[in-house]
Amino acid sequence: xxxxxxxxxxxxxRSVAWMHAxxxxxxxxxxxMTVRAGTPxxxxxALMLAHDINQIAVTDDDGILVGVxxxxxxxxxxxxxxx
Length: 83
Prior knowledge:
The protein has 83 residues and is of the alpha+beta class. The chain has helices at 3-16, 41-50, 71-82; strands at residues 34-36, 55-59, 65-70. The protein has three helices and three strands; from the N terminus they run αβαββα. A three-stranded mixed sheet has the order 1-2-3.
């Protein structure tokens, strides 16, 4: 076994070990930032910028989660709307 690979593996294992002990709930935004499905993307993007978040939950009229929109998704689809 290559000694560098062994050292790298141990370093990575130590770096991510904390993830086994931290519950996901500890890292979520409470309450989550949400928009309704009919909210214009410009408004959703403005909310993400104002609250310094990368994603926003999208709900239907009953408040049921229908998906998540993020900066990356918006940027990926932007050329379709510009051209």
